Prior knowledge:
3 domains; Rossmann fold; 51% helix; globular; three-stranded mixed beta sheet; 10 strands; alpha/beta
Amino acid sequence: MKKSAEFRFNNPLISYVIVNLVVNLAIFYFVVGLFPMANQSPFSKYTLPFLGYQFIWLFFGVAFKKYLDFRKRTIGEVVKSCLKADFFALTTGMVLVIGFSQYNFSLLALISLSLFCVVLELFFISVFYTFLEAEEVITSPQLSDLPPTVNLAVRDVHPVDSEVKKIMTDYIFQHQGVALLNFLNKNVTLFLSSTLIVNTSHRFNIEKVSTMRYSTIINLQQINNIREINTFFAMVNDRLPPEGIFVGCFESKDQRKKRILGTRKTIWRRILYVNDFFIRRVMPKMHLTREVFFWISNGKDRALSKAEVFGRIYYSGFEVVNQAEINGYSYFVARKIKEPIRAEEFNHGAIINLRRVGKGGKLIKVYKFRTMHPYSAYLQAYIYDKNNLDKGGKFKRDFRITTIGRFLRRFWLDELPMFANILKGNMKLVGVRPLSKQYFSLYSVDLQEQRIRHKPGLLPPFYADMPKTLKDIQISEKRYLDACEKKGTFVTDFRYLFVITFNILFKKARSN
């Protein structure tokens, strides 16, 4: 059995080959239409050479293991094998075009076709791994409690002498002047031997600090310049006693935008901002570019949102007790309340997955576009404490939601990845919404049993009836499920689809 499984893994997947052929065929018609090559019937002239070139393309794809199961390999391995195969295919094709020059085949068309194919291959690979590595969002993430501790008091606490006090004061002044000094004086006991001031982006400098030697650690280096932020925060957590204080600073993406654009938002400044946004914010978060970004920049000067930084703080076992904006930078005071979460995961992908109850009561992964900044799930308690609720039960002024996320949510575009669930067969177009286990438990037992007899859907009966309360939503869903069981699923879904579409287009039914 082991040899059989290994043998299957080393074979190319026919589904990958078919998808590659179909995509390349579409590109062929596009390229030949784009470059008619001064020929009155370019399709008849180039169809046979194209089929020959596809044989070469597939040959090198198989030779360089391009069509092996992506799930068994890293994205780097897949991209490497694709680029190798495509390079040798293009080189072979160019040699043949030049060698058979009497037929006047266009070298430009060959190169254009190949480049389009390569770009689309990389795009589909990125999309595949985006779904494969979609972050699982937990409704109520919990941090582990601190274990019982004994004799954790900070050693040898005493006021510093006047010389050390002057050195500390001057050092703070060099960074943000009197404003930062006043902020620190209000929030921490600054001039004690148990207070450490550092200016570092390397966790190794924190690692050298003796455990429990300091009750307060102040880092004046921007978090934007720290490559392994979670590891750095966890190291600070390890060095502090329970209730210990960590003070840090960062430049938020909004502060960064304001700094780059300035008061006069000229075209040149807008170009600089777009360039900075792509390099410093987009590249670190994309599968195909993040390793390149960290290799070139060593992770320095990243654009970070306030929600991501605060989320990482809570993820690492702290709670934010105060914050302030000082001269274009955000400063925070965080208190150690938990042990940090040790499992480091890539937490930036555009696709997230949520565990939901599907047909038969089986938990399924439901895909959605990310609409919140990374690590936002860990800020639930903070947001609840700082914000009021709308009448619909959602938070007002929730800074965790991105600008694009608000737009996506309003028009349900964040749910487009659910079509992957429809293709997988665990969801359908119209049906009751897939619910979390916690929300599912609020339903009556009878409705729970009726729900799991049907596949959940992308478009819920909610938007046909527009109920207001949880009780009304349950009545709406039961009405739909009863209709499915009495009149048939196909007829019921078609009728609901018509009503839902009408309400969205003409009654402006929108998601909050």
